[in-house]
Amino acid sequence: MRPIGAQQGFAMIEKRASNERYVVQAVDRALDVLEAFHGNEETSLNVICKRVGLNKSRTFRLLCTLARRGYVERTPNGLGYTLGLKLFERAAHFRRDVKQTAYPFMDRLRKEFNETVNLAVIHNGKLLYLNILESSQPFRMAAVIGSQMPIHTTSLGKSMMAHSRDDEFSNLVRSLAPAESRKLKKELEGIRERGYANDHEENEPGVSCVGAAIFDESERPAAALSISGPTGRIGAREREIGAALVAGCREISRQLGYVGTARARNGSQVPLRMARSTAERGME
User: Which domains can be identified in the chain, with CATH numbers?
Assistant: First the structure.
Protein backbone atom coordinates (compact mmCIF):
# COMPACT_ATOMS: atom_id res chain seq x y z
CA MET A 1 0.00 0.00 0.00
CA ARG A 2 1.36 3.46 -0.94
CA PRO A 3 1.62 6.13 1.74
CA ILE A 4 -1.20 8.71 1.69
CA GLY A 5 1.17 11.44 0.47
CA ALA A 6 2.21 9.36 -2.55
CA GLN A 7 -1.41 8.62 -3.45
CA GLN A 8 -2.21 12.33 -3.37
CA GLY A 9 0.86 13.07 -5.49
CA PHE A 10 -0.18 10.58 -8.19
CA ALA A 11 -3.70 12.02 -8.14
CA MET A 12 -2.35 15.54 -8.76
CA ILE A 13 -0.18 14.33 -11.64
CA GLU A 14 -3.14 12.54 -13.21
CA LYS A 15 -5.29 15.66 -12.82
CA ARG A 16 -2.66 17.85 -14.51
CA ALA A 17 -2.31 15.36 -17.34
CA SER A 18 -6.08 15.36 -17.77
CA ASN A 19 -6.23 19.17 -17.79
CA GLU A 20 -3.52 19.39 -20.45
CA ARG A 21 -5.89 17.70 -22.91
CA TYR A 22 -8.14 20.77 -22.82
CA VAL A 23 -5.42 23.38 -23.35
CA VAL A 24 -5.68 25.22 -26.68
CA GLN A 25 -2.07 25.67 -27.71
CA ALA A 26 -2.63 28.78 -29.84
CA VAL A 27 -4.33 30.57 -26.93
CA ASP A 28 -1.61 29.40 -24.57
CA ARG A 29 1.08 30.81 -26.88
CA ALA A 30 -0.80 34.10 -27.34
CA LEU A 31 -0.87 34.52 -23.56
CA ASP A 32 2.86 33.79 -23.49
CA VAL A 33 3.36 36.67 -25.91
CA LEU A 34 1.31 39.07 -23.77
CA GLU A 35 3.24 38.05 -20.67
CA ALA A 36 6.53 38.68 -22.49
CA PHE A 37 5.93 42.44 -22.20
CA HIS A 38 7.40 44.14 -19.15
CA GLY A 39 4.99 46.86 -18.13
CA ASN A 40 4.51 49.59 -20.76
CA GLU A 41 7.81 48.96 -22.55
CA GLU A 42 8.25 49.03 -26.32
CA THR A 43 9.51 45.60 -27.37
CA SER A 44 10.88 44.38 -30.69
CA LEU A 45 9.85 41.20 -32.48
CA ASN A 46 13.30 39.68 -31.86
CA VAL A 47 13.10 40.26 -28.11
CA ILE A 48 9.61 38.77 -27.89
CA CYS A 49 10.75 35.71 -29.86
CA LYS A 50 13.57 35.12 -27.39
CA ARG A 51 11.33 35.54 -24.38
CA VAL A 52 8.63 33.14 -25.55
CA GLY A 53 10.90 30.68 -27.35
CA LEU A 54 9.05 30.79 -30.68
CA ASN A 55 10.25 31.48 -34.21
CA LYS A 56 9.68 34.85 -35.86
CA SER A 57 6.97 33.69 -38.22
CA ARG A 58 4.75 32.26 -35.51
CA THR A 59 5.40 35.12 -33.10
CA PHE A 60 4.60 37.67 -35.82
CA ARG A 61 1.28 35.97 -36.60
CA LEU A 62 0.34 35.94 -32.92
CA LEU A 63 1.24 39.63 -32.59
CA CYS A 64 -0.81 40.50 -35.69
CA THR A 65 -3.82 38.68 -34.23
CA LEU A 66 -3.45 40.40 -30.86
CA ALA A 67 -2.99 43.78 -32.57
CA ARG A 68 -6.14 43.23 -34.65
CA ARG A 69 -8.10 42.88 -31.41
CA GLY A 70 -6.36 45.82 -29.72
CA TYR A 71 -4.40 43.84 -27.13
CA VAL A 72 -1.04 44.92 -28.54
CA GLU A 73 -0.12 47.90 -30.72
CA ARG A 74 2.64 48.71 -33.19
CA THR A 75 4.87 51.57 -32.13
CA PRO A 76 4.68 54.76 -34.25
CA ASN A 77 7.99 53.94 -35.96
CA GLY A 78 6.72 50.44 -36.84
CA LEU A 79 9.75 48.74 -35.27
CA GLY A 80 8.25 47.47 -32.05
CA TYR A 81 5.16 46.63 -30.05
CA THR A 82 3.51 47.75 -26.83
CA LEU A 83 0.59 46.40 -24.84
CA GLY A 84 -2.68 47.81 -26.18
CA LEU A 85 -5.32 49.83 -24.38
CA LYS A 86 -7.83 46.98 -24.84
CA LEU A 87 -5.81 44.99 -22.32
CA PHE A 88 -6.22 47.76 -19.75
CA GLU A 89 -9.91 48.10 -20.55
CA ARG A 90 -10.39 44.38 -19.91
CA ALA A 91 -8.66 44.78 -16.56
CA ALA A 92 -11.31 47.23 -15.36
CA HIS A 93 -12.96 44.66 -13.09
CA PHE A 94 -9.78 43.87 -11.21
CA ARG A 95 -8.31 45.55 -8.14
CA ARG A 96 -5.18 46.56 -9.97
CA ASP A 97 -6.99 48.53 -12.61
CA VAL A 98 -5.43 51.99 -12.46
CA LYS A 99 -8.68 53.85 -13.10
CA GLN A 100 -10.54 52.08 -10.33
CA THR A 101 -7.60 52.30 -7.92
CA ALA A 102 -7.00 55.99 -8.60
CA TYR A 103 -10.60 57.15 -8.27
CA PRO A 104 -10.76 57.56 -4.44
CA PHE A 105 -7.54 59.57 -4.50
CA MET A 106 -8.79 61.72 -7.38
CA ASP A 107 -11.99 62.42 -5.47
CA ARG A 108 -10.01 63.31 -2.34
CA LEU A 109 -7.79 65.72 -4.29
CA ARG A 110 -10.78 67.37 -5.95
CA LYS A 111 -12.42 67.95 -2.55
CA GLU A 112 -9.18 69.25 -1.03
CA PHE A 113 -8.35 71.77 -3.77
CA ASN A 114 -11.68 72.09 -5.64
CA GLU A 115 -9.84 71.96 -8.94
CA THR A 116 -10.13 69.57 -11.88
CA VAL A 117 -8.27 66.26 -11.41
CA ASN A 118 -7.11 64.24 -14.43
CA LEU A 119 -5.93 60.66 -14.93
CA ALA A 120 -4.08 59.72 -18.12
CA VAL A 121 -1.92 57.06 -19.73
CA ILE A 122 0.38 57.06 -22.74
CA HIS A 123 -1.34 55.38 -25.65
CA ASN A 124 -0.10 55.09 -29.22
CA GLY A 125 2.39 57.93 -28.85
CA LYS A 126 -0.11 60.34 -27.28
CA LEU A 127 -1.41 61.20 -23.85
CA LEU A 128 -4.87 59.65 -23.40
CA TYR A 129 -7.27 60.91 -20.72
CA LEU A 130 -8.87 58.00 -18.86
CA ASN A 131 -10.83 59.94 -16.26
CA ILE A 132 -11.55 63.57 -15.34
CA LEU A 133 -13.20 64.82 -12.14
CA GLU A 134 -14.23 68.42 -12.73
CA SER A 135 -14.07 71.30 -10.28
CA SER A 136 -17.28 72.92 -9.06
CA GLN A 137 -15.70 76.29 -9.83
CA PRO A 138 -16.40 78.07 -13.12
CA PHE A 139 -13.62 76.52 -15.16
CA ARG A 140 -13.58 74.07 -18.05
CA MET A 141 -10.67 72.40 -19.82
CA ALA A 142 -10.61 71.50 -23.50
CA ALA A 143 -9.66 67.92 -22.56
CA VAL A 144 -12.43 65.36 -22.11
CA ILE A 145 -12.32 61.65 -21.29
CA GLY A 146 -10.92 59.86 -24.34
CA SER A 147 -9.22 62.92 -25.80
CA GLN A 148 -5.52 62.92 -26.63
CA MET A 149 -2.74 65.49 -26.27
CA PRO A 150 1.01 65.66 -26.96
CA ILE A 151 3.05 63.94 -24.27
CA HIS A 152 5.83 66.50 -23.87
CA THR A 153 3.61 69.57 -23.38
CA THR A 154 1.51 68.25 -20.50
CA SER A 155 2.42 67.83 -16.84
CA LEU A 156 0.93 64.32 -17.06
CA GLY A 157 3.15 63.28 -19.95
CA LYS A 158 6.30 64.97 -18.65
CA SER A 159 5.93 63.31 -15.23
CA MET A 160 5.93 59.90 -16.95
CA MET A 161 8.76 60.80 -19.32
CA ALA A 162 10.96 61.84 -16.39
CA HIS A 163 10.99 58.31 -14.96
CA SER A 164 11.13 56.34 -18.22
CA ARG A 165 14.12 54.85 -20.03
CA ASP A 166 16.03 57.07 -22.46
CA ASP A 167 15.04 54.97 -25.47
CA GLU A 168 11.30 55.06 -24.76
CA PHE A 169 10.90 58.65 -25.97
CA SER A 170 14.02 59.06 -28.10
CA ASN A 171 12.02 59.54 -31.31
CA LEU A 172 9.86 62.20 -29.66
CA VAL A 173 12.88 64.10 -28.34
CA ARG A 174 14.65 63.91 -31.73
CA SER A 175 11.58 65.34 -33.43
CA LEU A 176 11.87 68.57 -31.40
CA ALA A 177 13.96 71.58 -32.32
CA PRO A 178 17.40 71.53 -30.62
CA ALA A 179 16.54 74.36 -28.22
CA GLU A 180 13.21 72.77 -27.30
CA SER A 181 14.89 69.38 -26.80
CA ARG A 182 17.51 70.85 -24.44
CA LYS A 183 14.81 72.69 -22.50
CA LEU A 184 12.76 69.52 -22.13
CA LYS A 185 15.74 67.46 -20.91
CA LYS A 186 16.55 70.08 -18.28
CA GLU A 187 12.91 70.18 -17.22
CA LEU A 188 12.80 66.38 -16.83
CA GLU A 189 15.80 66.56 -14.49
CA GLY A 190 13.91 69.02 -12.30
CA ILE A 191 10.83 66.78 -12.29
CA ARG A 192 12.87 63.83 -11.05
CA GLU A 193 14.28 65.99 -8.25
CA ARG A 194 11.05 67.51 -6.93
CA GLY A 195 8.68 64.65 -7.86
CA TYR A 196 6.09 66.52 -9.94
CA ALA A 197 5.80 68.25 -13.31
CA ASN A 198 4.34 71.58 -14.45
CA ASP A 199 2.45 72.78 -17.49
CA HIS A 200 2.23 76.57 -17.56
CA GLU A 201 -0.26 77.38 -20.33
CA GLU A 202 1.51 75.05 -22.78
CA ASN A 203 -1.76 73.62 -24.09
CA GLU A 204 -4.43 76.16 -23.20
CA PRO A 205 -4.10 79.90 -22.55
CA GLY A 206 -4.76 80.74 -18.93
CA VAL A 207 -4.64 77.10 -17.80
CA SER A 208 -1.86 75.52 -15.74
CA CYS A 209 -1.42 71.96 -14.47
CA VAL A 210 0.68 70.09 -11.92
CA GLY A 211 1.17 66.33 -12.50
CA ALA A 212 2.86 63.30 -10.93
CA ALA A 213 3.52 59.78 -12.17
CA ILE A 214 1.94 56.52 -11.00
CA PHE A 215 4.16 53.41 -11.04
CA ASP A 216 3.26 49.73 -11.38
CA GLU A 217 4.89 46.56 -10.06
CA SER A 218 7.60 46.75 -12.74
CA GLU A 219 8.65 50.13 -11.29
CA ARG A 220 7.77 51.86 -14.55
CA PRO A 221 5.34 54.76 -15.06
CA ALA A 222 1.90 53.28 -15.74
CA ALA A 223 -0.20 56.46 -15.61
CA ALA A 224 -0.22 59.95 -14.12
CA LEU A 225 -2.48 62.27 -12.14
CA SER A 226 -2.70 66.03 -12.54
CA ILE A 227 -4.60 68.94 -11.06
CA SER A 228 -5.49 71.71 -13.48
CA GLY A 229 -7.14 75.11 -13.26
CA PRO A 230 -6.67 78.81 -13.96
CA THR A 231 -3.01 79.78 -13.82
CA GLY A 232 -3.51 82.20 -10.93
CA ARG A 233 -5.15 79.63 -8.65
CA ILE A 234 -2.78 76.76 -9.54
CA GLY A 235 0.34 78.92 -9.30
CA ALA A 236 -0.57 80.17 -5.84
CA ARG A 237 -0.73 76.60 -4.46
CA GLU A 238 1.69 74.81 -6.77
CA ARG A 239 3.96 73.35 -4.09
CA GLU A 240 1.05 72.27 -1.94
CA ILE A 241 -0.65 70.65 -4.91
CA GLY A 242 2.60 68.97 -5.98
CA ALA A 243 3.17 67.46 -2.54
CA ALA A 244 -0.41 66.17 -2.37
CA LEU A 245 -0.18 64.66 -5.85
CA VAL A 246 3.12 62.89 -5.13
CA ALA A 247 1.72 61.48 -1.87
CA GLY A 248 -1.48 60.29 -3.59
CA CYS A 249 0.38 58.79 -6.53
CA ARG A 250 2.71 56.97 -4.18
CA GLU A 251 -0.23 55.26 -2.49
CA ILE A 252 -1.89 54.40 -5.82
CA SER A 253 1.45 52.98 -6.99
CA ARG A 254 1.72 50.87 -3.85
CA GLN A 255 -1.71 49.38 -4.53
CA LEU A 256 -0.59 48.60 -8.07
CA GLY A 257 2.34 46.59 -6.72
CA TYR A 258 5.05 49.26 -6.73
CA VAL A 259 7.64 48.69 -3.99
CA GLY A 260 9.46 51.99 -3.67
CA THR A 261 11.86 53.15 -6.38
CA ALA A 262 11.08 55.01 -9.58
CA ARG A 263 13.23 54.46 -12.65
CA ALA A 264 14.95 57.46 -14.17
CA ARG A 265 15.37 57.80 -17.94
CA ASN A 266 18.99 56.62 -17.76
CA GLY A 267 17.90 53.37 -16.12
CA SER A 268 18.97 54.30 -12.58
CA GLN A 269 16.53 54.05 -9.70
CA VAL A 270 15.21 57.08 -7.83
CA PRO A 271 13.55 56.60 -4.43
CA LEU A 272 10.03 58.01 -4.64
CA ARG A 273 10.20 58.97 -0.98
CA MET A 274 13.02 61.41 -1.91
CA ALA A 275 10.76 63.13 -4.43
CA ARG A 276 8.05 63.39 -1.79
CA SER A 277 10.26 64.90 0.86
CA THR A 278 11.55 67.50 -1.61
CA ALA A 279 8.00 68.53 -2.46
CA GLU A 280 6.94 68.59 1.16
CA ARG A 281 9.93 70.73 2.18
CA GLY A 282 8.65 73.38 -0.18
CA MET A 283 5.51 73.62 1.95
CA GLU A 284 7.43 74.37 5.17
Answer: 4-88 (1.10.10.10), 94-281 (3.30.450.40)
